[in-house]
Amino acid sequence: MGKFVIKKTPTGAFxxxxxxxxxxxxxxxxxxxxxxxxxxxxxESVGKNAAKCIAEERVEDQTLKxxxxxTCPKFEIxxxxxxxxxYRLFAANGExxxxxxxxxxxxxxxxxxxxxxxxxxxxxxxxxxxxxx
Length: 133
Fold this sequence. Notes:
Number of strands: 8
Structural class: alpha+beta
Radius of gyration: 14 Å
Order of helices and strands: EEEHEEEEHE
């Protein structure tokens, strides 16, 4: 089972990371949230939208010469500046809600990352590192 980890930024905002069961970081928030409640809604959205994208084959591959456009929610595969594959997850409203932490050397690798997000986000445990210990 995966887990979301909520952290506070140096400016006092909130963000999250998604970890797979093996504790590998597989996605990070595409934005920072002004409240913890908004951050939790973002995590919920990742779980819901990632699963829908996999079930409905909503993966738009921008690395192709003529990519097939998909409607949101969708995963989008693209090349980063280093020429590595990365993904972004867009919610139904078109807002980017999560992205890959690191680049992948192969398309099969990025696809495995996308599937891992869908699998691990669905019932992920939430670890709140902003709470006082």
